[in-house]
DNA sequence: TCTGGGGTCCTAGGACCC
DNA sequence: TCTGGGGTCCTAGGACCC
């Protein structure tokens, strides 16, 4: 935690709805709801006029319509939101080289990294107000709320206290007492499930939380969340402002107007999703090894199935093939309301790097030295380090096998000696099996 | 009035290796 | 014949955030 309130949290007010009102003057001063407008839609953002009728984010659009039938219901124009967000973020970068966007409408700004010093409450409030004016001008009239404090936690909570168009600076040294009277749910990371567990332990406010020992909190919530919450409750937060956070996964999902049960229809939808995921991977110069299919049943229970490839891919055909297989393995009886396809275990090198010319592969083969005791056939009949398995992701040496799985070592140009990956032997990815030497007569080579 | 779409992080168990 | 513990990878599910 810092000695000066040098972290700002900037939060644009009713962002999506505000952009719509900016671009369409007839909507100004009127209730506007942006979100899913179909039968199963939910509200993303409600303008302040719509909030007067009880319309809230994450509420079903059906309920919003019943509460506020005369509002304008809009599906959203994300290109416009992205462009506006970029203009706003640029204003923050003018103020400091170190900003951390959390979403299109939120970011931390590090004033310390801007070389500013002697930051007392008055000075920070003035800086915040200037920033809000700059944002207003650059965005075509949008307002923001700003919180400032000695840590991310305090800045984030403060920005929420005087919305819209507020500025709240929490004086250094007053953090714990600032938090104490608040509900535990103001602490980021404490959602409904955690709040309920805490309630059962007699904890409703941060002050209640401050009474608990670390041991007790860890018992209630586990090591990670317990220790985190223990620190945050006493305003002990030294998390740094971090600019470029790397993408960990890319996914597409869709909720259908009515539940779908036809496997052929779903397979075709999965193909389209695989293509869109692939496009986004390629645009971001990323590829990934794990393909995940997500299904949501009529009763809202959600399942995921995933499969990890030998090497990263951004190929729509491969993603689609794996997604189809995972979908086939999924239970869709009774119909599903949602289908999703995603790719994770991302790498910033692309698929082509996995395929290398045979010359390089041979050079690598020479370099491979195996311990003597491994130069024997394993349980599934492979010679580890000598047999080669051909997969659609490239060729790799068998590194060991048994119990229905085979471990394959891949050689890649960029990352020799390459990843070691495990496949189920029945995995269709193992299209062909080429032993370097013929298996002995009694050897039952694992079925491909 | 039933519950979006895009993410992140954590946990837990099993397989496998040393 | 039984008994280990640590570490990594993978899978599945859940909580949470905007």
Automatic annotation (TrEMBL):
Binding site for Mg(2+): 11, 105
PROSITE patterns reported in the protein's UniProt record: UMUC (PS50173)
Cofactor: Mg(2+)
Keyword terms, alphabetized: Cytoplasm, DNA damage, DNA repair, DNA replication, DNA-binding, DNA-directed DNA polymerase, Magnesium, Metal-binding, Mutator protein, Nucleotidyltransferase, Transferase
A GO term for molecular function: DNA-directed DNA polymerase activity
Domain UmuC positions: 7-191
Catalytic reaction annotation: DNA(n) + a 2'-deoxyribonucleoside 5'-triphosphate = DNA(n+1) + diphosphate
Main location: cytoplasm
UniProt cross-references to InterPro entries, sorted A to Z: DNA/RNA_pol_sf, DNA_pol_Y-fam_lit_finger_sf, DNA_pol_Y-fam_little_finger, DNA_polymerase-Y, DNApol_IV, IMS_HHH_1, Rev_trsase/Diguanyl_cyclase, UmuC
UniProt site positions, description: Substrate discrimination: 16
Catalytic center residues: 106
Coiled-coil stretches: none
Protein EC: 2.7.7.7
Family assignment from sequence similarity: Belongs to the DNA polymerase type-Y family.
Described purpose of this protein according to its UniProt entry: Poorly processive, error-prone DNA polymerase involved in untargeted mutagenesis. Copies undamaged DNA at stalled replication forks, which arise in vivo from mismatched or misaligned primer ends. These misaligned primers can be extended by PolIV. Exhibits no 3'-5' exonuclease (proofreading) activity. May be involved in translesional synthesis, in conjunction with the beta clamp from PolIII.
UniProt name for this protein: DNA polymerase IV
Gene, per the UniProt record: dinB
């Amino acid at each position: 935690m810092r000695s000066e309130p040098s972290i700002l949290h900037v939060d644009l007010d009713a962002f999506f709805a505000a952009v719509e009102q900016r671009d369409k003057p007839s909507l100004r001063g009127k209730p506007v709801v942006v979100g899913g407008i179909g039968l199963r839609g939910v509200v993303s953002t409600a303008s302040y006029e719509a909030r007067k009728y009880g319309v809230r984010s994450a509420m079903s659009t059906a309920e919003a319509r019943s509460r506020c039938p005369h509002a304008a219901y809009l599906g959203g124009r994300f290109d416009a939101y992205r462009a506006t967000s970029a203009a706003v973020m640029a204003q923050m970068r003018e103020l400091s080289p170190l900003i951390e966007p959390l979403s299109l409408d939120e970011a931390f700004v590090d004033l310390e990294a801007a070389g500013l010093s002697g930051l007392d409450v008055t000075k920070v409030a003035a800086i915040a107000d200037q920033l809000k004016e700059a944002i207003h001008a650059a965005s075509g009239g949008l307002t923001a709320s700003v919180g400032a404090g000695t840590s991310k936690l305090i800045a984030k909570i403060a920005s929420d206290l005087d919305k819209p168009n507020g500025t709240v600076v929490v004086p250094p040294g007053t953090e714990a007492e600032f938090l104490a009277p608040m509900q535990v749910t103001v602490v980021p990371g404490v959602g409904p499930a955690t709040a309920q567990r805490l309630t059962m332990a007699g904890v409703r406010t941060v002050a209640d939380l401050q009474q608990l020992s670390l041991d007790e909190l860890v018992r209630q919530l586990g090591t990670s969340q317990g220790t985190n919450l223990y620190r945050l409750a006493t305003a002990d937060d030294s998390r740094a402002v971090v600019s470029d956070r790397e993408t960990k996964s890319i996914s597409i999902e869709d909720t259908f107007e009515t539940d779908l049960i036809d496997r052929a229809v779903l397979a075709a939808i999965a193909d389209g999703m695989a293509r869109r995921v692939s496009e986004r991977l390629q645009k971001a110069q990323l590829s990934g090894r794990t393909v995940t299919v997500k299904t949501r049943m009529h009763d809202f229970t959600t399942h995921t199935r995933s499969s990890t490839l030998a090497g990263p891919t951004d190929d729509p055909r491969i993603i689609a093939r794996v997604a189809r297989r995972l979908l086939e393995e999924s239970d869709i009886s009774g119909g599903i309301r949602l289908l999703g396809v995603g790719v994770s275990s991302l790498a910033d090198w692309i698929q082509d790097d996995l395929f290398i010319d045979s010359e390089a592969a041979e050079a690598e083969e020479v370099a491979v030295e195996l311990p003597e005791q491994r130069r024997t056939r394993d349980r599934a009949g492979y010679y580890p380090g000598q047999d080669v398995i051909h997969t659609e992701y490239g060729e790799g040496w068998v590194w060991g096998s048994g119990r229905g799985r085979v471990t394959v070592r891949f050689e890649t140009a960029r990352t020799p000696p390459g990843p070691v990956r495990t496949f189920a032997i029945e995995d269709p990815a193992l299209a062909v099996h080429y032993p370097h030497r013929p298996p002995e007569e009694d050897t039952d080579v694992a079925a491909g």
